[in-house]
Design brief:
single chain; alpha+beta; five-stranded mixed beta sheet; globular
């Protein structure tokens, strides 16, 4: 049940987007609005999405967060959260990531889905996701909470677009039918050293389950995943902090690698 007025929602959206664009950390918004709930939080996120679209940015996809069962239990939530991906979030594979435009970036390894047909809930399931997927591709998401010291509660992080910031895709494209995505192993390297390993099953037992859940969550707002969307299905590995000078490579079994340098 919403606790904020339309004016408060728009004001908080402007506050958080300004923190992103001006590269400055702020305290979590529930410090000032302790009654803020998930309905309010998503309303703020969608207001920010409209703000970016009004400025001429294109929304090219969506991302899921808190997709591991262990993380959901730790945060006392029953389902993951989602955010949107603006066009300028996408960075060139093998290129440079400008840390002067980020506050405290972290990287995590993911499998991305690119859709060829829309997906709509409720009742969306893994089979529908696989049938609607054009291809899957390895990805590294660079998350960057706008909150001081990366400290927040769930409504605050939802309002902050689930810490969305930048992402890089690469490697080879693969049909979702060509491999069992649950068993795809990934290695995340920083400066040549492996720092995290995992497998696709870390994402709600199957990355496509995460995409199905996203479609069902969007249905609560009478929204869908459009054809041609890029979906980051959720972190297979824990997030690793990075800074200028770091080189990051993610290697996905049978799918190639994704690399970038932070400057």
């Amino acid at each position: 049940m919403s606790t904020l007025s339309h004016e408060q929602i728009e004001s908080l959206s402007e506050h958080l987007e300004s923190a992103e664009l001006q590269v400055r950390a702020v305290h979590k918004i529930t410090d000032d609005y302790p009654e803020l709930d998930f309905e309010d939080a998503y309303a703020i996120q969608w207001a920010t999405r409209r703000r970016k679209e009004g400025r001429g940015n294109r929304i090219i996809g969506l991302k899921m967060g808190l997709t591991s069962r262990a993380k959901m239990r730790q945060m006392s939530v029953e389902e993951p959260i989602y955010g949107f991906l603006a066009d300028y979030f996408q960075q060139v594979e093998g290129g440079e990531i400008d840390t002067s435009k980020l506050i405290h970036p972290k990287v995590e390894a993911e499998i991305a889905f690119v859709t060829k047909a829309p997906l709509r809930g409720p009742g969306c399931h893994v089979g529908q996701v696989l049938a609607a997927t054009d291809f899957v591709i390895p990805a590294v998401e660079i998350i960057d909470s706008r909150y001081e010291n990366f400290r927040f509660d769930l409504p605050s992080v939802v309002a902050d677009n689930a810490s969305s910031s930048r992402f890089v895709t690469g490697g080879g494209i693969l049909s979702p039918w060509e491999t069992d995505l649950r068993t795809v192993g990934v290695v995340l390297e920083k400066n040549g050293d492996p720092v995290e390993v995992g497998a696709g099953a870390a994402v709600i037992n199957h990355p496509a389950s995460s995409v199905a859940l996203l479609a069902n969550m969007l249905a609560q707002r009478d929204e869908e995943i459009p054809a041609g969307s890029l979906i980051l299905s959720g972190g297979i590995t824990a997030a690793v902090a990075v800074e200028a000078g770091d080189n990051v490579t993610m290697r996905a079994q049978g799918m190639g690698s994704v690399s970038m340098r932070f400057v």
